[in-house]
Here is the input.
Amino acid sequence: MTLSEIATISGKGGLFKVLAPTKSGVILESLDETKSKMVATTSHRLSLLNEISIYTTTKEGTVGLADVLKKIHTDFDDDLGVDANSDASELKAFMKAVLPEYDEDRVYISDIKKLVKWYGSILKFAPELFAASTEEEAPSQEKSEEDTTSEEKSEEDTTSEDTTSKEKSPENKTAKKKKEGK
Here is the structure.
């Protein structure tokens, strides 16, 4: 499962797993113990989690939710120290610890509460999202090292092929004979 398969609906609490498209919308399953199913039509305001970002004061202006969730997971794992019912100052301090450059004017306490709830739901019902992100990082680093060595080898192979092909080409043999004849 990826963040592109998890959605939230405006006006409804919680997260939903996208199961399948229909003619008039998508079939969703709640990401909780009940696993209730519903059809979200065009009248619902549906947002996929991979499309959501958090306002920052940086030049880019936003940071993707996936990056923030990964940072929370690496820094706090399953003990956030806050929950959705925590005091506003505690929630702001938590957000500042996770994303120091978040825009305090445009990111509301309700947004931070949603982030905490969503992280808890994902950790409980879709922990493979975090396992996949840590597994992707390790092979990508190994692969980049392999790519570098294979590129170096291919450059060496190309260089040796160039010198051997120049020696064997008929044009070069003729040029050598002319030089020797003069």
Summary: Confidence is low (pLDDT under 50) at residues 140-169. The chain has five helices and seven strands. Helices lie at 65-76, 88-98, 109-125, 128-168, 170-181.
